[in-house]
Amino acid sequence: MTTTTTTRTTPTAPVGALPGPLPLGLTRAGYELRLFFRERDAVVFVFAYPVIMLAIFAAVFGQDGATVTTQGGAEIPFAQYFLPGMVATGIMLSSFQSLAISIAVERDEGGLKRLRGTPLPATAYFAGKVGQVLGVSLLQNAVLLVVAASAFGVTLPTTATAWATFVWVFVLGTACGSVCGVAFSSVPRSGRSASAVVTPIVLVLQFISGVFFPFDQLPSWMQGLASVFPLRWLVEGMSAVFVPTGSGASGQHGTTALVLGAWLAAGLVVGVRTFRWRRRDDG
């Protein structure tokens, strides 16, 4: 009698196979965070700017305990009133402005071209950028809120509902800013001109979106223009969190989500169609 022995083999991954998209994205995010924190000038600007601006406005407008009267007729300290704008500004700096400039510089220096020639998937690269933005924004906001509460007497929310609002506005605003930053990075003609192109746009949006001035005191045409852009609604969403109930924070959550979501979708479409891995003069 002949006995037949069947040998089962266990499939093995090909030698040199890359990990999945999630591990690669997490690894890339860690790499991007290390690169960011090595740029000390950028770190100081991103973390210090919102705190410094809050200190300036609180000192200039809040002398002798002065308060601001909101649309709802409530009297609140200037630091409390301007905090939502500083939170929104911080998110915009670490997402839209940071990515629009840094990616343009990477492209101009040939880094994106070299990266495209490696086995690293494009999804892992972009996931790394978004992960870096989330990490920086979380730390940035933590620093801002601690300083606001300890140095300027700002009252932070005490309800789970308010913090839940903060979380979804923060996540949606960060995602929107990141995607739009990636898409806009193709606009500057070179890395050297990126800052000159991006920074003025960010400054103008801050002036017309209720960051530096009470939104209801701006001209009606300026309010209408600002309402098209996401920063105005990011400020609106954060106002619903940090400005006490009944003080004029309208809490238009539906409109906030709609506008931020629309810009997120538009940024994805434009980014997919226009993103370039090479310089304009490199084919």
UniProtKB/TrEMBL annotation:
Coiled coil: none annotated. It is a multi-pass membrane protein. It comes from the Bacteria. Keywords: Antibiotic resistance, Cell membrane, Membrane, Transmembrane, Transmembrane helix, Transport. It is found in: Cell membrane; Membrane. The chain crosses the membrane at residues 42-61, 81-105, 126-154, 160-184, 196-215, 257-275. One of its GO terms (biological process) is response to antibiotic. It holds the Pfam family ABC2_membrane. GO terms for molecular function: ABC-type transporter activity. Belongs to the ABC-2 integral membrane protein family. This is Transport permease protein. It comes from Cellulomonas chitinilytica.
